[in-house]
Design brief:
Belongs to the PhzF family. This protein is of the alpha+beta class. The protein has six helices and 18 strands. It has two domains: 132 residues, Roll (Diaminopimelate Epimerase, Chain A, domain 1); 129 residues, Diaminopimelate Epimerase, Chain A, domain 1 (Roll).
Length: 272
């Protein structure tokens, strides 16, 4: 029976049971898409990341939720870099990941041991808050933006903590247009306990009710916070109930740095 190497990582976490779970599976070559999707469904965490070496310090990277392949995933990229540095002995200054829809992503290890990811940050457009969205969220946002996802601003962190949306209703809603803005909602407010912004991310459109730590969401949040509050660098808390995750961001032009750390919680093999 063939086996594949397997690592489960808590990303954007300083210790186990924090941040967001990702499975990382280094491969010699990509398996058929249906097999990659089936493995991700079996792993049943937010994302499974697959990497294949493609050069010195370069890997091709793909991400799958239990339901679909996604174009970008921050926490699983952080988890993958953690595996390369901490589990597989990579010692280079930086890691390059080539992706299908998000181009080349780079990760480097900082002097304090945290990892810094360099991601694209796409444009955002302010949009009206509809009654349909407000009803599905269970509270009316003060403002909203469309972009990679739907971003909803609330007035206080307490409002964000208290959200209990109708996930079935959210699944088919979003900003005008098509793509990953459908059924994927980032809800945020400025401030929080020692942070610049507090947020939660609901992703029924990607097969995830609520994501504990979402790097891709923070690439959009960094852009929104720059336009609304004139912040280029910020400390963020993603307030998933019972876990929580801390993510630092630095917006630089059309790129954003996402900074965090990870811990390995399981390592072994996956039997096919």
């Amino acid at each position: 029976m063939p086996t594949l190497p397997f690592y489960q990582i808590d990303a954007f976490a300083s210790k186990p049971f924090e941040g967001n779970q990702a499975c990382v599976m280094p491969l010699d070559a990509f398996l058929p898409d249906e097999t990659l999707q089936a493995i991700a469904a079996e792993n049943n965490v937010a994302e499974t990341a697959y990497i294949v070496p493609s050069g010195e310090g370069v890997w091709t990277l793909r991400w799958f939720t239990p339901a679909v392949e996604v174009p970008l995933c921050g926490h699983a990229t952080l988890a993958t870099a953690h595996v390369l540095y901490e589990e597989l002995g990579f010692s280079g200054e930086s890691i390059a990941f080539d992706t299908v829809k998000s181009g080349r992503l780079t990760v480097r290890r900082l002097d304090d041991g945290r990892l810094e990811m360099d991601f694209p940050s796409g444009p955002v457009t302010e949009i009206p808050v509809t009654d349909e969205v407000a009803t599905a969220l269970g509270a009316r946002p003060a403002q909203a933006w469309g972009g990679m996802f739907y971003a909803a601003r609330f007035d206080t962190p307490d409002q964000v903590h208290a959200l209990a949306p109708d996930l079935k209703a959210l699944k088919d809603l979003g900003a005008p247009g098509e793509g990953w803005d459908r059924g994927n909602f980032g809800c945020f407010a400025a401030g929080g306990d020692g942070v610049d912004v507090t947020s939660r991310f609901f992703a029924p459109g990607s097969g995830i009710d609520e994501d504990p730590a979402t790097g891709s969401w923070h690439t959009m949040l960094a852009r929104v916070m720059r336009e609304r509050f004139d912040l280029d660098a910020m400390s963020c808390f993603q307030a998933y109930p019972g876990r929580g995750a801390y993510i630092d961001t630095k917006l630089q032009g059309d790129r954003v740095k996402l900074i965090g750390q990870s811990v390995t919680v399981i390592k072994g093999s996956f039997s096919l």
